[in-house]
Amino acid sequence: MNALFERLPPNFLPSFLAGMAVNFEIAGIALALGLAFGLLLALARLQARVVGMAARAVVALMRAAPTFVVMFFLLNALPRGAGLSGVMIVALSLVPYGASYVADSGVDALRQLRAGSLLGCLLILPNIARAFFVMVMSSSAGAAIGVQEGIAVILRQAEQMNSLGDMLLLFAIGVACFGIPLQAAFAVIRLVQHHLGRSTLRGREAALTDETTVPIEP
Amino acid sequence: MLVLAAGLLVGSPNPAWSDTPDAALAQLLDEAHAAAASQGACAQPGIDRLVRILCARRIRVGVRTEYPLFGTLKGTVREGYEVDVARAIAHQLGVDIDFTKVKAANRIPMLADDSIDLVIATMGDNTQRESQVRFIKPHYYRSETLLVGARDRRVGDWQDIRGLTVCVTLGNSSNAELMSRGARLMLFDEATTLTERLNDQTCTLAAQDDSFFAYYFNEPSFAERFSDKFGFAQIPWGMGVALAGSARLARSLDLMSQIFHRDGTFLELARKNHISIAFLTQQQAVWARPECNTDTGSTNPACILPPANVELQPTPFAGGVTAFEAWFTRLTGIDLFLPMLKTAPAWGLFLDGVVYSLVLIAGALAATLGFAVLFGAAMGARSWLLRWPARAVTVALQSSPILLTLVITASIIHALVPYSAAVALGAAILALGLANGSNAGQAISEAYVTVRAERAGLPAPRLDLFSRALSRSATQIAAFLINAAKGTPIASFIGAPELLSALTDITSFSSGRATTYTLLLVFYTGVVIGVVWLCHKFQHFLERSRATT
Hints:
heterodimer, A: mainly alpha, MetI-like fold, 9 helices, 80% helix, B: alpha/beta, D-Maltodextrin-Binding Protein, domain 2, 3 domains, 3-stranded parallel β-sheet, 13 strands, elongated
């Protein structure tokens, strides 16, 4: 292990952290665009027959489109003059996933709101946080088109390693660096969901108590 | 004109003036000048480009602007061997010169649409391009494709590049050769990007003409880090003019090139620009030979070099495909290119890609289901010796981006068995199965806990409880099966020969990228929709089995 750290160049950690920042940047852009499109699609899905059906079809297509293929499609099918950076191409490739996820969660949230459950509606927040972290992980696909994100830095360094053992140790560092914030975020999401769930239950119990104590007018 | 001819004749080893290229050139230029001087000739449509150039007193030449030693533009200063060749030609014609920036992708279209008169832009003469452009013979340079990589990476021959990422430029005729040798290609528009990507280690190797790398190997910082591994695909470079309306211009340039070789003009310009002179030295000797130093030398097979043969065997239905493309374009106004259907190698790659993709998807689904059951059983086991390792592996797999999981799996497998397409496919199936199966397994184990809690105190065999847990987690299992199918294209990253890999290879040596990748998106989206439908059927089957138990 020590030998591995000795072989890592001094700029490895700053490069890796800068790479991870790119992962978060990509996920942030994708989430912002996904929220904009997804919420519009969610509203459309609750509309009258034709609009609703069209929105459902669009969401189904977006859900089925593999991110990696969308990325290569954007890279090769867009006119060269579009001038999109690698980061933007990866972010855009995640938009179909983000938008369809937000649309599905948005429909659930709107239904909960219409049913009078504000807390049920608020469950969309942890769901969107989960989608954000899924997109952070998925943004590593950018390594395939030369985007200098975290996994690209790890893979670049791994090519300099002579033994499989060193390589696996380096990969383990990468997994840990991605895993710790991810697992911590999921733990927070579970806590928030737990809290919202308990609040919902308490709300229902309070409502039931109110119903039983409200005096019935003669 | 006689002065020019006399000047060109100086030093000529061939004394028979009437048969020399010098005499032929002098006569041709005299005729063209006379045509240009005649009343109203310059305004006539369809005149030969040579006459038009003399009328305008300008020649429009397409050159590279980012190709060190051959064609660069720094501020307003143009430099390089090709720039100097263009200047020498303009000087001989007695006209000014308008330079235009061209790239590999647009240099031939710009000739065809009459944006330029002449292209001198690192263009290799091959059998495919011979039908698109009139190449000037003799050729003004010859290059070979060089593979360059880090000094400490041992690459001796073709065996060593299998599975490695090789960065190339789009449209390079040697891409097909690299692809057929098992290299994974990463495509870029500009050659200069290749050295940037080598420097930041995005590319393991880069392939480009030796002429391109010559400049970089002159830089100590580059030469210290990188070395050339081996060269292949020698190809002569030719100036080009449009096929139509350029007969006299082409003939004059043929003759001029003969003279430039014989008299050492090309050689002198090469020395000035510090490029390799081996080919030009040899050519000077060739064009000084009596049988070549004639007005017909440029058509003598004993003197000129043949174009590189890159013709790909067409498919039996290539004609029909071309007709369909034309019909579709007429009908919709959208340019449609289907390169995967037109040549035998591309068609073979395409078919293999489709089959491998379907095998990969089927394998990933089966592996996901298998690992889901294994992880579910292990995480639901009474013994902590099974439970905790399974949970630890699941957390690790959840924490690893799928690309990294894929690379880790491939690295371990490649350490055990030699690389092959089948091994890459197997590694991808294993990685996708592990990543998605562990998540689905976690869902099964959580369902198992709830089923066991509900049946507390009631006698029930473990197998029965487990099958109920499978039914209860059907939605999650289906979701991760769909996720596995959606993830299969990423297998191309480790060299699995699925459709994305195949089409990337096809587009590296053919046109039609937009159509190709649109079809790829349609294919995978369609397949995933099919998998979603199947998974919902499977989910209903699992749920029905719960209802009946």
